[in-house]
What does this fold into?
Amino acid sequence: MLCCLAVAGAAGGESGEPLRAMVESGRMEGLRWPDFSDYRNQVRNFYEPDYSPAWVREGAATPQARAAIEAFADAGDRGLNPEDYDASRWAGRLTKLRPAAPQPEAAGVAHFDLALTVCLMRFISDLHIGKVNPRHFDFGFNIENKKYDLAALLRRNFVNSGEVRAAIDEVEPSFPAYRRTEAALRRYRALAAGTGPGPAPAWKTAVKPGMRFEGLAWMAGRLRLVGDLEGGAGDDTGSTIYRGALVKAVKHFQDRHGLAATGVIDRGTWKQMETPLSARVRQMELTLERWRWVPQEFARPPIVVNLPEFRLRAVDAGFHVELEMKVIAGKAYRHQTPVFASDMTYLIFRPYWNVPPKITRAELVPDIKKDSAYLAKNGYEVMDEHGGVVEAPVDDRMLALLRSGRWWVRQVPGPKNALGAVKFIFPNSHDVYLHGTPAQALFSRSRRDFSHGCIRVEKPFELAEWVLRDRPEWTPERIQAAMDGDAPLQVNLKQPIPVLIVYGTAVVRDSGDVCFFEDIYGHDAELDRVLEQGYPYPG
It folds into this structure.
């Protein structure tokens, strides 16, 4: 007993000063990412006042330390890079920690202990709120109120806990979409590590059902690998004629990749099919990073719009989908819909559309110059600086005032109104909202970035029903009457409804289908570049 106390005391007392010095420097050589200055205060709080080792007892790593090291090795299954937590370096550190001498050197204990603390703090924070602050990308998610007191969390849930894995699981987002993506990631990581059907043959021309296709065997192998082609379907004849089960499988594949499910193997379909599975893994990793940015607790079930998918989902308290529809988002060039969170507070039936000055200058003024009757034909009114309707002819003076922004344009309620019969308002600095549209034909397109930034919804009536579901006086008949009315009508919500505008190019549906979408705004590429730079990340 005296021997054990002497060893523990020596490890604690003698390693205290080396620990203190390394903590204060905010840097430790030997880590893959030596600069931990962004965690220095948290690490200091963890070790104060005496800077005794937390993860070494009697010259050996504690069971909790070993459990954490095992979790670092499995970080890839959670969408993180194990090497960011020194996964390959821990075996050597464990060996050095307990040499042949009866007692390890104090400096070695300090180095091991601090490395474990820094890596575990990074690991927990990365899983809980992501590596990069979303504000760096001008995304409107606030992670500040989600941040942990990491020093207290480590002491409470890790240092003396027998359930380190459970404590790690607890810090991750709990909503189903995140967990489904993690499960799909593990599967795709295994697929990407396998041999697969080999390199894809070159695509030459569109292949329709009934046509001969020399790449049929490769395609069948890829479709079977990712689950679009069941069992031995497609192998029964050895034919090179594209037909039957393979056509069905291609349609399923197209649907999962945001393409029109025509069954025609066109260039776009082949491009998605020959994309390496390692790229799909990366899409899921980037999507998981962004999921960690969003709020995890809501006063009411939210509405979630995923921009690359061009999809809106309204969910219940368990995040199960109650309502789903297509949306049209902002154009990739110059009119991107922002990523943010807000609360819907009211909706307006038969709304006016107050045309933003930029659109007036860039689009309406040129059309008015070409046709002086353009305003009247399309239901527009010119408004003066006092908010009054201008009763004046279209002339150079009016056009100059419109260009200057002193006068502005609005579109009156009616069948031509760009906002359709209802708009849903969640106040935000971008002046973005959900609304209907008279241009229903655009919803048939597979890629739907056509707007100036606001989000057009495919089913405004159904969305209004869902939004007003706690207002029994708003029957379907009354909602329809309001949408067919002659004048604007604002309806305030009893309780705000959270609205999340998110960006994920990998989505796992309730059905289990793993879907991938184009990086329409380049956000994946930008996030990937930042993550490659390593710690400390922009915070």
